[in-house]
Structure formats: structure tokens, C-alpha cells
Amino acid sequence: MQVGIVGPQGSGKSTLFQCLTGLEAAASGKVEIIRGIAQTRDERLELIANFYNSRKTTPTTVEYVDAPPVEAGGLKRDSFRAIFLRGLEQTDALLMVIPAFLPGQIEKGAETARDIQTEFILCDLESVEKRLSKIDRDLQRGVKGEIDREGKLLMRCKDALENEKPLIELDFSPAEDKLTRGFTFLSRKPILNILNIAEENLAVSEDLARESGIENAVPLCAAVEAEIAALPDEDIPAFLLEMGIRQSAREKVLAKTRDMLELITFYTAADNEARAWNLKRGSTALQAAGVVHTDMERGFIRAEVIHFDDLKPVDSITELRAQGAVHIQGKEYIVADGDLMLFRFNV
């Protein structure tokens, strides 16, 4: 999973990047992309590894991408736009950091966020118009087939964008989704709004988020979160309790992002490795097999599935089988969050 971090100068987005990854952000004023990997903390994975005596654990990871600060008209500058788009083209979602340190700043911050999203729409519109121009020339030369379908889809996108409607509000079929994969459509990416509040407002952070009227908003204080990120793991719970914070930013942002992207976690395990995998909610056993390895998807026979909660009261896989807790499932089985899966396949 890859998540971009965007926002205006001085919003605290680079401080948030440091909190989430433990890495230094870009120097102020530099137009560059900084990337950092964060491993997720997964207690279920640890339990599964202990159950199988796995020598290695591999949790899911998040790659955070700290983009240059966006100002009004910034994406019209070719040099800035090229760096910005290149950095965000592979991202699954965006964190929009909104400064909300001072009274009245939330309203101004929300307006800035809307301006940035308008920049995204204009940027997407320019990309669509350039591609439509090329498609029109190709059609005049007699080129048919896929390019004709792409042109019709892009005209639909163009109509939406000209009416200031982000592409995330359009419904795409799987075939249409495939046609648009070559584009970096910023307005099609889901956005989690991060309200960067002052430390003295932590006690009323949820009230501030609710009163702001900003959809999909997560309040936090990046400065305090930077202190949390610098602490040894064993000291974090006491500090959170003292500050009245239920979850660290790392945990809160990750959980909200996964919910927004409709992701679940399934597991594979053996004596050599226990591993966690991301999967879109509603996916089948066949699709889960493909996430692990394309050969498993191609030669899928069946999946042996253990629900995580069934692991706790037993000591061995033999005992699980005896209790009927190992379920044989076909390719159409809908994977549940926490499923432990063994794929049988033949290629």
C-alpha cells in the first residue's frame, strides 16, 4: 500500500511524514519527493507465528510519499507538476494535511484543501484533454477498437471535470478501470483529511473535527506525535494516557486509511515464515491466492481456511483439524479479515 501526503506550506505534513516513518522529511523549500516505509504492528501475526513456530514474520507495510507543498496555481508550473505527479502516480490514497493550530484556522485550512483539490481537478482535465486530442488524431487516421472505447470514457471524465466534479465520484466498470490505469488521476484518489491541531486542543479534538464540517477528517497534533514517535515502544502507552490520546497517529492514520481503501488482512504461515497480506474487502479465495503468487491463482485447487479466533484455544494444527476448524473452501469463497489460508494449487 502506498499513501501520498499532500498539503500547503506550513501545514505540518512533513512532520506527519516523520511521525509515520521515522525518517527526515525534505528540507523546507525543496521541490522533491521523499519516501519512507512503515511496518504495521500486528498482534495477530505474532500469535500466528508463535502457533507455527515460524522463524520469520513479515507484516504488511505502508510506503508514505511526502510530496512538495502545493500552493494555488502550483500544478500549472511544468517542472513542479512533473515532480509532483511522478511522486504520486502509484499512490492508492492521499493524506491531505490541513493546518488548524489557531482559532479560525480550520475554515481557512478547509478552503486551502478545497483549492488543492480544485488544482487536482484542473490537472486531471489537462491530462484528459491532451489524451483526447491524440485519440482524435488517431481516429481520423482510421484507428479503431480499444482507442474508441477509451475516447468515450475520457469524454465522460472530461464532462465531470469541467463541472468541477472529482473523478472519484464517477462509477467505473472493471473494464473502464483498466483503461484509466495509465493515467495519474489525482481527483480519483480517496483522500483522508488530517486536521493538524494545537496541543492545547487535544482534549476537544473530536469536537473540532465534527464542527469543522470537513468530511473524512482525523484530528491530531503532529508536534506531539513527533514526541511519541521518538519514544521507546514500552513508554508509549503511558505517554498516550498522560496526553489523553487513545491511539498514536501511526495507528490511527493507518486504520482510517485501510477503512477508506476497504482493505482487510489475511495470513499465510509455515515454519519458515508467517506473513500478513493486504486484500480488498469482498475478494475471493482465488484473488487472495493471486496476491501471494500468480502461480497459486493460475493453478488454484482449493484453500484451507482457519479463522483467527479458532487459533487461540488450541495448541496444534492437528487439534484444529480434529475440531473441524480447518475449512475447505473453493475459489469463490469470500475471504474474511483475519483468515489464515493455505492454498493448494497445481501448475
Task: Give a verbal description of the structure.
The chain is of the alpha/beta class. The protein is built from 13 helices and twelve strands. It has helices at 13-21, 43-52, 78-88, 105-140, 146-162, 174-179, 205-212, 222-230, 236-243, 249-261, 285-292, 294-298, 317-322; strands at residues 2-6, 34-39, 57-58, 61-66, 93-100, 191-197, 217-220, 263-269, 274-280, 300-306, 327-329, 340-345. The strands form three sheets. Strands 2-4-1-5-6-7 form a six-stranded mixed sheet. The protein is flat. The model has no long low-confidence stretch (mean pLDDT 88).
Q: Could you report the average pLDDT, rounded to the nearest whole number?
A: 88
Strand segment tally? 12
Uncertain segments are: none
Strand content: 15-25%
The CATH architecture of one domain is Roll
Q: Return Rg in Å.
A: 23 Å
How many strands, what sense, and barrel or not for the largest sheet? 6 strands, mixed
And the CATH topology of one domain? Ubiquitin-like (UB roll)
Please give the count of helices.
Answer: 13
User: What structural category characterises the helix and strand content?
Assistant: alpha/beta
Can you identify the CATH superfamily of one domain? Beta-grasp domain
Order of helices and strands: EHEHEEHEHHHEHEHHHEEHHEHEE
Helix content bin: 40-55%
User: What would CATH call the class of one domain?
Assistant: Alpha Beta
Q: Assign an overall shape.
A: flat
Identify the strand order in the major beta sheet.
2-4-1-5-6-7
Distance between the termini: 29 Å
